[in-house]
Amino acid sequence: MGGTGAEKPVLIRWEEREGVKTPVRIDGRLPEQLRPIRIEVGVLGNADGSALVEYGATRVLAAVYGPREAVPRHVALPDRAIIRCRYHMAPFSTEERKTPAPTRREVELSKVIREALESVVLTEMYPRTSIDVYMEVLQSDGGTRTAAITAASLALADAGIAMRDLVAGVAVGKVDGILVLDINEVEDNYAEADMPVAMAPSLDKVLLLQLNGVLSHDEFIKALELARKGILEIYKLQKEALRKKYVEVETSVTG
Amino acid sequence: MPKLKRHTMETLLARGVRLDGRRLDEVRRIEIVPGYVEKAEGSALVRLGHTVVLAGVKTDIVAPFPDTPNDGVLVVHAEFVPLASPTFEPGPPDENAIELARVIDRSLREIRAVALDKLVLEPGKHVWRVFVDIYVLNHDGNLFDASMLASMAALMVTRLPKPVKTDNGYRVDRTKYTMLLPINHRVVSVTLAKISGKLIVDPTYEEEQVADTRLVIAVSDDGRIAGMQKTGMGSLSYNEVLNAVSIALNKAKTYLSVLEETVTPYRAKLEEELAKISEEGQEEQPPLIPKREHLETETIEQGEVVEEAAEGESEKVE
Q1: Residue B135 lies in a domain
Q2: For residue A102, which residues of chain B lie inside 8 Å, CB to CB?
Q3: Among A140, A203, A222, B239, which residue's beta carbon has the most beta carbons within 10 A?
Q4: B224 vs A116, A206, A216: nearest CB
Q5: How many helices (H) and strands (E) does chain B have?
Q6: Is residue B67 part of a domain?
Q7: B116: domain range?
Q8: Count of alpha carbons within 13 angstroms of residue B60, beta-carbon side
Q9: Domain with B95 in it: what CATH number?
Q10: Architecture of domain A35-254
Q11: Interface residue B21 vs chain A (CB under 8 A)
């Protein structure tokens, strides 16, 4: 948000579709439509678990190392694992080069993502260890934190870490007065609101919720509902991607 | 926290009562001292129960950000100074301080609480930069709401010093003030904590230690949601989120009325003084420093305050 120096593009066009005036977004999507989502699990050789998630042009790689010995030792907890998270954007992932040093934004997002994952991982099963989750945004086109958490939960599952549920995230925005699902970067730059949400869908639990912008009470209720709808779609894709990996493993073994 | 205390807290909550005697949706006693630091362009000390937060505003003149040439610059920064709590350590702001500052920054920025478009001296070249520095002085829970109140109060009583044109820009003459910081909206935040399935407003430090999670909801004076952040481990159910937002929209009125009763009159008084000075002529203008009488503590009772909470320790900062 805050805009850019450039002239504001037309973000919502009203088109006649099957006789109905329909709002169409700058990338041709309908308001309640996700971008094409691609999910791949187990993409890195060294990591205990990994996943690549794309929401349109947004591309995030997540890797999990652990449970492993916590270093330094004093950070370890006697009754459960600690989770450490790093959300980081590659310098080349943005329009202008982003400094590789962690920014205040990245510190905050790493914190809220960690807190979200902590409530689904059965940390009590891995006392005195640390589970390290690294998320690298390779290309940023809006919704990076929600793509990152979607990827992180898959990487945790891929590492075989016990979890209560997967976590899926999506951002809902308000663009030219219209609530839109899975906001992209151009929309975000001019949006009246951007609301990233992550949930554990089967538990119906909200694990991450931020609102950057202004919404009325009614708009908020609708936005949260829209987010849940998107999250359930992504959840389905997550499960498919996990299954696909194990089918591949099976065929490679049994031939 | 001792298990016994946690147990007591949870048993009480099941009956709708809290350890300090408050109802689930009751905020602690609020006290705001506007203009606490005379040297700052604006400041406010806020006591929320035993939580004490001081916010100070300083200004300077800089080049605007290239993407917003017609806007002044707002910077929010928070320090959890080690004197405020045994859990705070010296050093650069940790993730908690960064999160707090960023949530407050967003809640003020997105709704344009400060009229940044009126802080431009020369578009694209020279604009005011407004720093809000949040100093937590005593941590007894709910730093978000206390810091938001302190920041908002400090901004409401901020006077801009006189800009003086120089060869290559402007310098600031801090012996003279020209105008009050233009404010579009007053924004407060309402923090709810979830403890054993119950939502409580304005958690104390002890309650935060027990809480599953917290949801911070910023609300503007026109009843819109200006920002939100789930903070802390744990989760909220979908319906709990909706519930929390309804409670927050309602409770925000309590905070807003405190601002109205203590800070708005102080702002009016500053405005009067500024008007008087500009009538008397610019040159022999005396520095506008709030007189001591303004600093009298103004207290507003929020419902019944339990005896023990009222006497308590005396971590007054003066």
Answers
A1: yes
A2: none
A3: A140
A4: A216
A5: 7, 14
A6: yes
A7: 3-281
A8: 5
A9: 3.30.230.70
A10: 2-Layer Sandwich (3.30)
A11: no
